[in-house]
Specification:
CATH architecture of the largest domain: Roll
Radius of gyration: 19 Å
GO cellular component, one term: host cell nucleus
Largest sheet: 4 strands, antiparallel
Protein name: Peptidyl-prolyl cis-trans isomerase
Organism: Pelagomonas calceolata
Number of helices: 8
Catalytic activity: [protein]-peptidylproline (omega=180) = [protein]-peptidylproline (omega=0)
CATH class of the largest domain: Alpha Beta
Number of domains: 2
Order of helices and strands: EHHEHEEHHEHHEHEE
Strand order of the largest sheet: 2-1-4-3
Shape: globular
Distance between the termini: 28 Å
Subunit structure: Interacts with host FBXW7; leading to FBXW7 autoubiquitination and subsequent degradation.
Number of strands: 8
CATH topology of the largest domain: Chitinase A, domain 3
C-alpha cells in the first residue's frame, strides 16, 4: 500500500526501469554493453507493455524489481533498479519531478528524459528504514542457498568448473539463456526439483554436483551482490538474475 508524503521534501529514493532508444543521449545498454537499435516509439510501446504486466502481477513491486534486474539499460540493474537516496537537483528535471510527485510504493507512468524512457517506483528513504524498530530490521545471521551460475567471457575466471572448458558465452547471450531457465523452472510442477536438475546440468560452479547447493553462509562470505540477493529472499523463493564478478546467477534460498 502506498503512503502519503507531505511538504516540499528535499530527499527521495526510488528504483527505476530504464529503456534506452536510438535518440537517447548515450544509446548503449549498461546491462548488455550493446548498441541500442530500438526506436523511441518502439521503446515507449515496449515499456508500456512491461508496465501493464507489472500492474497486473500479484506483487507489483517484486515484478517491477525483477524486470529492473533483467531489462533495465541503467547500471542500477545490478541493484534491481535502486538508485538510493538523492536530493533535488541531482537528477534530470523530468525524472526528479516524477519521483517527488509519487507516493511511497507508487509506480509512475512512462517518464521521458535525455537518458531514455523510465518507469519509477518510489521507495522509503534509507534513513527512514534505519529508524525502524529493531524487530523490523532483523536480518538472519546465516542463510542457505543454491545457485545456478552461468559464466561469461567477462567473468573473473572464464572457465566452467563443470566441464573445465573455456567460456565463450557473451554476457548478453548468457542473460537470455538464464532468463529462459528461470521461466522454465518457475513454470514447472516442482520448481525446487527443477532448479536442482538445471543446476546439475548447466551450472558452471562446482556446486553443480549438489544441485547448486552452497550450504550455509553468513555476511561477508560471498560477493556483495550475491549476498544481498540471498539474504533478501524468502525461504523457497527464487531470485531474478544477479550479476557478480563470477558471472550471472539465479539463486534459490533454501533456509
Amino acid at each position: 500500500m502506498s503512503s502519503h508524503v507531505t511538504g516540499r521534501e528535499k530527499t527521495a529514493r526510488c528504483a527505476h526501469l530504464l529503456v534506452k532508444h536510438t535518440e537517447s543521449r548515450n544509446p548503449v545498454s549498461r546491462r548488455t554493453g550493446e548498441q541500442i537499435t530500438m526506436s523511441k516509439d518502439h521503446a515507449r510501446r515496449y515499456l508500456e507493455g512491461l508496465l501493464e504486466g507489472i500492474k497486473a502481477a500479484p506483487d507489483s513491486e517484486t515484478a517491477f524489481r525483477e524486470l529492473c534486474s533483467s531489462r533495465s539499460d541503467c547500471g542500477s540493474y545490478r541493484e534491481a533498479g535502486d538508485l538510493g537516496d538523492f536530493g533535488r537537483g541531482q537528477m534530470q528535471r523530468p525524472f526528479e519531478e516524477a519521483t517527488f510527485a509519487l507516493k511511497i510504493g507508487e509506480l509512475s507512468g512512462v517518464v521521458d528524459t535525455d537518458s531514455g524512457l523510465h518507469v519509477i517506483l518510489r521507495l522509503p528513504l534509507r534513513s527512514q528504514r534505519e529508524s525502524e524498530p529493531p524487530a523490523k530490521k532483523q536480518r538472519a545471521s546465516q542463510v542457505r542457498a543454491a545457485h545456478l551460475l552461468l559464466k561469461t567471457t567477462s567473468s573473473r575466471n572464464p572457465v566452467s568448473r563443470r566441464t573445465n572448458a573455456s567460456i565463450k558465452l557473451a554476457p548478453s547471450d548468457a542473460r537470455r539463456e538464464l532468463e529462459g531457465y528461470r521461466k522454465e523452472i518457475l513454470s514447472s510442477e516442482d520448481p525446487h526439483k527443477a532448479f536442482a536438475a538445471k543446476a546439475k546440468a548447466r551450472s558452471d560452479c562446482s556446486s553443480y554436483a549438489r544441485g547448486g547447493d552452497l550450504g550455509h553462509f553468513g555476511p561477508g562470505q560471498m560477493q556483495k551482490p550475491f549476498e544481498d540477493a540471498s539474504f533478501s529472499l524468502e525461504v523457497g523463493e527464487i531470485s531474478g538474475i544477479v550479476e557478480s564478478d563470477s558471472g550471472l546467477h539465479i539463486i534459490l534460498r533454501l533456509a
